[in-house]
Amino acid sequence: MTTIDSSPDATGDSTVGRLLAADVDWLTSSDHKKIGRMFVGAALLGLLATIVANLLIAIERVDGGAATFDSDSWAQLLGSQRVGLVFGTALPLAAGLAVAIVPLQLGARAIAFPRLVAAGMYMWLGGFILSIVSLLNNGGFGGGDSDMVDLFLAALGLMALGFTAVGVSLVTSVLTTRAPGMTMRRVPFFAFSALVFGIGLVLVMPVLVGAVIYLFVDHRSGAREAFGGNRGIVTWAGWIFTQPTTFLFAIPALGLFAELLPVTFRKRAKLRGLVFGGLGLVGVSALAAVTQQLRFDVPWEGSQLTIADGDDFSTKLGDVAPWAMFHLLPLLGAGILFLMMLFLAKPSKNDDGETIRPNITAGFLFAFFGFGMIFVGMVGSAIEPIVDLDLVDTVFGEASLVYVAYGIALGVMGGVVYWAPKLWGHTLDMKKVAPLALLGVAGTVLASFPHYIAGFLDQPAGLVYDDSDLQIWNILVLIGHGLMALTVVAFVGLLIATVLGSEPDAGDDPYDGHTIEWATTSPAPASNFVDVPTITSAEPLLDLKTANDSNTGSAS
Amino acid sequence: MEALAAGPAPAPRNQIVVGATLAAVAIAMLTGGMLAIWAVKRSAAIEAGQSWLPSGIIVPEVPSNVVLIAFPALCSFAQWAVWASKRDDRANTVFALGVSAFVALLILNAQAFIWNQMGVAVADGAYGSMFYAITGMFFALVVAGLLFSFVTMFRYLAGRTREREILIAHAIFWYAMTAVYTAIWFLVYVTK
After folding, report:
1. Of A169, A171, A287, B80, whose CA is between 20 and 30 Å from A77?
2. How far A180 CA sits from the closest chain B CA (Å)?
3. pLDDT over 70 percentage in chain A
4. Helix (H, G, I), strand (E, B), or coil: what is residue A23?
5. Is B98 at the interface with chain A, CB within 8 A?
6. Which one is predicted more confidently, B5 or A456?
7. Candidates B31, B43, B129, partner chain A, best to mutate (most A CBs within 10 A)
8. pLDDT of B120-133, one tens digit each?
């Protein structure tokens, strides 16, 4: 009888054999922490590739005239920027962090459908690599190489299918694998945000797949009548690369910010329902995607929202209602989180009359800056459609997308720093991480805000501009992307050096956490918890510490 | 610090059923999105004074209606499998799953027949490419369902008779497909 020996000895004792075995173990793992880390790791590389595209665009724009690239290359470069910011950065980073952390927060031993998540991750990775290949070969939006356009569409569909799979797994995990006693109202904020994000993916990604199927058949068959061939990609699939659809991908970063607030300010979050509502409101942006809305035109016409003579009320409402729903509601949702921060940051005293001092961690710095950048991006996105401002088709729209995508990246880096003890058993040095957070926010602001100004000064969305006064803003943008590249490289380097540099040294609960992932060991074992804990409140660990303190007090 | 009290092992919470429901939602969104674009394109063509259906093309109503009738039957068989499984009736469960797969095969045959009868070329303008995109997507989903039926049946035959959740998931899939085809039937084959 033939048998297959899968024991470690089968790979031999050589270093190469052991390395191969370790690689195979990682690549075929069904452990959500490993899948999530691979997701985030690959997404950080995707972010770097995106920044390179952004740098090339920024260099081209500095003089506003003579282009090093021909028009085809320029079009593909702009396409690469959009694909990179959405499918190379925002989506995989958010999904990866959620996959790695959510089961730990739920008290689950594993994520639901782990192989489906792994398949989703590989579908995204394969699709992203294929999309880069097609974009490099003039195959993206309006691309000139027919086969490469087909490849680009197939890659887009593959990535969308992958994220649908991830969404199904995340939602099923939150709905079915919670620890005993963890009702939906007791679910941690980050896990709840992953639920909203997952539902959004399940609703949005299949719609994209449908559009891509049409585009592919139309283009591949040679008909090119219904959708205009390669030109139709922007019209019929462009909504996934624009605001407000991208707000959906920011939800986990916003959830992380909400998650860290009670821990940072050492207080209970009393208005949990309001925070859940806020995260849900940001999720409304999914409806913008489902309805495939690429562009909003809000006629302000000097009369604000009043009805001028001859204006039809229903026409006005038809213009304003979708804009208000898809831009202002998510903004309101993010605003609720900001109000919660103000509420928790209010100075107060504990039972012993001592002032409660906030515990600002490096993870919180990243998360706070990430939240801020996403918020500013949302504000910009809400302003852009107002027709009277003439911001449509200027660099303003690009700036708001960069704000949101880089904001998500900063937020997820905060999550990696915060949960590093559970993922690697290490805490990252605050003195080293904090400057990177500052560098990251400086990079994001410089990469985006000058284009807000240039948008008001009518710099068109393409490469060329006539007004030499615009040059300074484009130089600042170039510096911003450069700083962001530096931040990401330094962050990855610091993470690798910390993880590989010494033995795991983090305590089980280094940040005085409230939720149950801090009840397990650091790093978390393969099955997350030796014994599944019972949950009696939204802050079970805080309850336990308070009870222990009371017992100690009464004993003394 | 004392540790959190360990709880009892979590009771199973219908993971496969929830997953299947989400997959059904995804299928509905996929079809809904495609049909919405179909409706927009059709409406635009008619408003422009053009004919949406290419001249000389006749939609074969008999096979499209037969498929519509076949889907409720398919759901009944899938539900029969769930019902029989709950009663540990192995013979009826396997038979119901086998019949489900058979009806799915008939649906595939009917779809192929529709393509053959209509004779639309895929490169035949906007209608051709969109028609094949949407019906091709439907065909692919039915193939996936057929494989699902076979896998469920063989798992059951192999003795995994206690895992009833997958039978419920199987039924949910076909319920979703019934809704999907009803929408396609109305928009593509009835309103044309």
Report:
1. A287
2. 6
3. 92
4. helix
5. no
6. A456
7. B129
8. 988 878 899 999 99
Each residue's pLDDT tens digit, A131-168: 999 999 988 888 888 999 999 999 999 999 999 999 99
**Cβ of B9 and A176 within 8 Å?**
no
Element (H, E) at A230: none
Gap from A241 CA to chain B (nearest CA, Å): 17
Distance of CA A225 to the CA centre of its chain: 36
Contact A214 B133 (CB under 8 A): yes
Which residue of chain B is at minimal alpha-carbon distance from A107?
Answer: B10
Q: What is the pLDDT of residue A2?
A: 43
Phi and psi of A533, rounded to 5°? -75, 155
Residue of chain A whose Cα is closest to the Cα of B28: A206
How many angstroms separate the most distant Cα atoms in chain B?
A: 81
pLDDT at B93 exceeding the cut of 90: yes
* Interface contacts A/B by beta carbons within 8 Å: 141
- pTM, two decimal places: 0.93
CA angle A531, A533, A537 (to 5 degrees): 175
Give the tens place of pLDDT for each residue, A536-549: 898 888 888 887 77
